[in-house]
Amino acid sequence: MISSSALRSASRASVSGGAARHSRRQLAAIASTLPSHAHYFVNSPPPRCQPTRFYSLDRPGASPLSLFGGGGGSNDASPHSQALEISRWPVTKSNTILNIVPQGQRMVVERFGKLHAIHESGYFLAIPFIDSIAYVIDVRERAVDILPQSAITRDNVSVEVSGNLFVRVADPERAAYGARNPLYAVMMHAQSAMRSAIGELELDEILHNRAGLNTLIKGSLQDAAVAWGLEVRRYELTEITPDDQIRIAMDKQAAAERDRREQVLRAEGDKRRAELTSEGIKISLKNESEGKLIQVTNEAEAEKLRILREAEGNAEAVKIQAEAQAEAIGKIAAQLEKGGGQEAAALALAKEYVQMYGEMGSKSNTMFFQESAGNAQSLVVQALGAMKAMNLGDGKGDGPKGQS
Fold this sequence. Notes:
Layout: H1 4-17, H2 24-31, H3 79-87, E1 98-101, E2 105-111, E3 114-119, E4 122-125, E5 131-138, E6 142-152, E7 158-169, H4 172-177, H5 182-199, H6 203-208, H7 210-225, E8 230-242, H8 244-336, H9 341-363, H10 376-403
Antiparallel strand pairs: 1-4, 2-3, 2-5, 6-7, 7-8
Helix pairs in contact: 5-7, 9-10
């Protein structure tokens, strides 16, 4: 096992001399102290004519001297480069007496192995052989890929989950002395926090509540990252992949759910159609009954008005007829009082009597007559007798009036 001083010496040698001066034996010796996931880089020779790569976890387009170091270089941000850059912590710089700190970086200066000062962007003077630039830290926000991790949900479903972690250095002193490799520590903690958070939720909750899961993981990471001088800005789940059997079951469930929704929608449509049809029939019958009621009411009103008008007409006709008869009777009475009026009335009455027999004979073949029914003289005599009887009745009715 190589000590930390040997590892720091190898790192400083890589900065001053470049990657071309390292042999595979030296890389193998350095890699023996690194995390296991970085060991497979030892057989990969460094790119030719390219500066040594430092702690860079950015997407393509970033500087190779990144999260905790500075400098120019490649744009490669593959998992290979990430693991190699993690292994190059800490990043140092040679003391040139007049030292320049680029914008967005901090330099931690040690004097006789003890923290002396932390310089921000600009320039500063350092005493050679006494002061050493132990750490070059980039304080800009960086994105860290969290590789897919296997986890088991609360309902015993195996899933692979990957994410992106966005961090920045908030306290350079804690980042330098709070952990041996702060970024590696926060990455490991992010993986364990992600698995722990997934184990508390069911698969459906994970798929439908990514925002809540991101917040839960971010809160757990932030509590731990304070001691390492890091600030966790946010955490985003990028992919949740269940195993093949669960995906097949989810596809079947989704298909069944679509079929169920289709049947429900069709049933609701049929129900709505039946409701609208019955409602239409109800409205039609109601309108028809109201129309019949209006028709019957109008007919009754018309019949009532007709009967009323007929009654009024009949009453008016009877009144006019009575007035006419009264006028006729008055005229007859006036004529009877004249000379020969009695004989004329008797003659008229006999005439009507004869007409009556004629009408009776036209309607029936059998007739009953009194004695001497065909004697015209007897008919006149009977008419005169009837008129005399009428006159006698009138005289008796007028007698008391004459006496008074």
